Amino acid sequence: MTSPRFPISHRSARALAVTLCLASGLALGACGAGSDRAADSATTSSGSGLSLRNSTPGPAPTPTAAASSSSGNGLSPLSSKAPAATPAPEDKQTKEAWSAPSLKFYNEDTSVWYQDDSVVNTDAVSENGNIEGYRTHNGMCIGYETRDISERIHDLGLDDDTMSSLLVPVTDSVISDYNETGRETLDLVRDDGGTMEGYSVTWTGTFNYDDGTSESVEGYKFARAVGDAGLDFSVEIICSSGNNVSADQWHTILSGIRIEGLKAGKMSS
C-alpha cells in the first residue's frame, strides 16, 4: 500500500475544499490559535470546510483556546408606567432568553498530532462556529476539531444521546462509501465535571479528489451534543487506508482536549 497522496509534496499544488455539513446542519467557522471567536447562532452554508494541502510539519503548538460569547438578554424590565404585577411562572419562561455559555477549548497533548490550519479552508466557513485543523507527525493523517454553540441547538428539544448519535456519522462531502465499522461510548474529553461522555466511531470510506481520482481512507470520529449548553462538539481524523492511528493514539488525542466552563454529564439520564 503506497503512502497517502494528500500529505506528500507532489499533491501540494492540489487544493481541495469540502463542505463540512454535520448531521444537524451546522455551518462551521474558523478559529485560529489563541482566538476567542464566538459561536452563537447556526445557519446552513455551502462554504468549504476542509482542504488537502501539503505543509511542512512544524513544532507542536502551545495549547489554544476559543471562547464563546454570551448573547442572552434575560428578562425584559417592566415599564415604569405599567402596574406592578408579578408575572405568572409561564410568562417568565417565555420571556427568559437563552444565554450562550462562556466556554474555552484547550488541546493540551500534541504527541500524536499538531495544529495545522493549512488543512482547513478558513476563508470558506461561516462565523457561526469554529474549526481547527490538525496533522499527525508521520504525515499520514489529517483531522479537525469543530464546535458550534447556538440557541437553535438548545431549542431542538432532543436529548443529548439522540443528538450525539446523529452528529457522529462522517458526512464530509468528499467522503463516499462511508462505512461505520464500530461504535462505542467514550468519556475521555475533560470538562469541569471530570470527563465528557460522547460517541466514538471507527469508519472507512473513499476520499474523492477534485481531479476525479480517489483513494481509500479510514479514521475515527468523536461527537457530543449538549442541549443545555447549545453545544455540538466533534473531533475527526482521516488517514490513508492502512495507516490509521491506533486506538491508544485516538484515546490520547481525546484525553488531551479540555473544555472549560462546561459540565456535560452523561448523554442520557
UniProtKB/TrEMBL annotation:
Region called Disordered, residue ranges: 34-100
Assigned keywords, A-Z: Signal
Biased composition (Low complexity): 34-80
Domain of life of the source: Bacteria
Signal peptide interval: 1-29
Record PROSITE patterns: PROKAR_LIPOPROTEIN
Protein name: Lipoprotein
Organism: Actinomyces ruminicola
